[in-house]
Design goal:
Elements lengths: L1 E7 L2 E8 L2 E5 L1 E3 L12 H6 L5 E4 H6 L3 H6 L3 H5 L5 E4 L2 H6 L4 E3 L4 E4 L6 E4 L1 H11 L3 E3 L11 H26 L7 E6 L5 H14 L3 E4 L8 H11 L9 E3 L5 H9 L4 E3 L2 H7 L2 E3 L5 E3 L19 H5 L2 H9 L3 H30 L2
Parallel strand pairs: 4-14, 5-6, 6-10, 10-11, 11-12, 12-13, 13-14
Antiparallel strand pairs: 1-2, 2-3, 7-8, 8-9, 15-16
Length: about 350
Amino acid sequence: MFELLHTTPLGRRGRLHTAHGVIETPFFMPVGTGGAMRGITHKDLLDLEAQILLCNTYHLHLHPGEDTIARAGGLHRFIHWEKPILTDSGGFQVFSLKSMRKITEEGVHFRSHVNGDPLFLGPESATEIQHKLGADIIMCFDECPPSTASRKDIEAAVDRTLKWAKICKETHVRLAQKTSAPPLLFGIVQGGLERDLREKCARELLAIGFDGYAIGGLAVGESEEAMFEVLQWVCPLLPADKPRYLMGVGVLHQLIKCVSLGIDMFDCVLPMRIARHGTILLTSGEELKITNAPYKEAHEPIDPLSPSDFSQSHARSYLHHLFKTNERLAETIACKQNLGVTLKMMRDLRAEIVARATP
């Protein structure tokens, strides 16, 4: 269930109720693809006040497999995470592994990126896997075309996405009858940069009916302005009493803008990816490239106002040294900093929305 508490020019403020707890919106999801994050423990995530973890169906299906996880008591128990979990359906791998897959009307035939073994994912199997994993929020299996695709290809992807969404919903309804706490199922709006296709996809997903609605196929090469324009088309079409999830966006100023356009949920690997390459986000809004020469003698704290204890106590010169000597601790310090800054920004934004809404 989703409670919409406030609507302001800064964005929406709400609460998303799941089987493993309430999530305050708007929020950002750390990405733990296979049930873990590189360089960061689950305790670190809790210390940074993460509310939810995103895991990936395709990767967990490859290893250890949903049956193993089910026998372990479900994904929460398997990875020792008691808060909510969202599982991506594997639809993004249709985009990211395009050289290793073949799309049919029934689903997608992959070659495993690990060993080349054949793998099939379709709307029914992807939904069944997510139910076995025991996630709190599950996603429809969709086709995510590149933003540079032809209109013909985008139109075909929308048609498949809608066809598969109906099968996902039917499968979900069947499986939900067998559990006392079924997951929430989200549909995904595709359509590239074609306004009429986005609107068609949104309308037909609403007719099927889902617990929430995601907007996919953005942040895949189009301009920032084009992404915002798509949100201006799509968000007004989505019901106010359902959560709205923009997939794959994590640049800080983009998060603020997208919240103002009506988005409630985000995920992205970007804060962690740039951290591993030495780009550090600061609570001041600045960025620094810690591997640059001037930081060899920068002995002040990395970020004295950081949510991360490491950044408060360790010097920039030390982090520079760790990166230059390829110490694994560099990754941990940098990733905690960037994720902490991202999560703190969302907390601050929630507080600003409440303050703006209060007379």
